[in-house]
Amino acid sequence: MRDIPEAFAAHLAQGVTTLCRCWSLRRRDGVALGFTDHDRDLTFSGLVHEARTGLEAAEASAELGFAVSGGDVAGALSSLGLTEADIAGGLYDGASVETWLVDWTRPATRLLLDLATIGEVRREGDAFVAELRGLTHRLDAERGRSYRATCDADLGDARCRVDLAAWRTAGRVTAIPEPATVSAVLTGEFPDGLFTAGRLTWTVGANAGHAVDIRLQLGDLIELWTVPPRPVATGDGFTLTAGCDKRLGTCRDRFANAANFQGFPHMPGNDAVARTVPGSAAILDGGSLFR
Q: Domain Bacteriophage phiJL001 Gp84 C-terminal, which positions (predicted)?
């Protein structure tokens, strides 16, 4: 049951209210932004909540038990903080959001409605809709190790222990044949596919600091999984980090790191579970195969 502050309860009891919604957003890089659907700026907790953002709340839901609750917030991309490039660049992925119901005549009189994180963001032209996921969505996140044939570590992390410095190279864009594909000059010579499933980090140009996964690398042609958030120009610089397909053969032959392989390559599959014992009669009546 929600505890309603005494001052807020007294305001509701008046019958005629002066309420609006405010959203306090904090990105993972520490940047804090405030928004409101009121027609003027409101300030509380040291944060200015901008009114000229065109934000409005959609229907929100709350669920009993462990079901994930949430809602949507929609608005227009503007110069007050939200830009298409930042959203596409993932700066708002996983950002925390506080939703407040505020008396706009006295912002100190307010009620915290929900704590959420930003999930999927859909963009259409100059507008966007951001999904707000309740705290219970974290229960869906994978925890611990996975029992599978392939490795569940990330290349270069504390369990993998591969030194990524030896598996990086610099490059420079020479052409952009497709929005998510670049031709480049790389420092050094590398076999095809070495950087497939790896990472490209922009170092020079409009996308500097942004990183993206590599879908395919063939010679000097690099295909990305997503289009960079800002336009790419010839001469833009980047670094490439090698990829790994998580198989034991790749870990052993490419990285000489089989001792740190974090998978179970000899795990029996479904075929081993379903097969009959060699030499037994082919009678599948539900009885023991070892009698």
A: 193-271
List C-alpha distances in Å: 95 to 2, 90, 113, 116: 24, 10, 17, 8
| pLDDT at residue 6 in the model | 87
Tokens in use for 84?
Answer: 């298409």
User: In total, how many domains does the chain have?
Assistant: 2
In 3D space, the residue among 46, 23, 48, 18 whose CA is nearest the CA of residue 36 turns out to be 23
Separation CA 172–CA 203 (nearest Å): 10
Q: Any idea which of 59-63, 130-134, 214-218 has the lowest mean pLDDT?
A: 59-63
Domain that holds residue 191: 164-260
Coil, strand or helix at 35: strand
Beta-bridge partner residues of 202 = 238
In the structure, what pLDDT confidence band is assigned to residue 103 with cuts at 50, 70 and 90? very high
- DSSP character at residue 260: G
- Whether 283 maps to a domain, the answer reads no
Any domain includes 123? yes
Percent pLDDT > 90 in the chain is 35
CB atoms inside a 10 Å sphere around CB 13: 8
Residue pair 21/100 in contact (Cβ under 8 Å)? The answer is yes
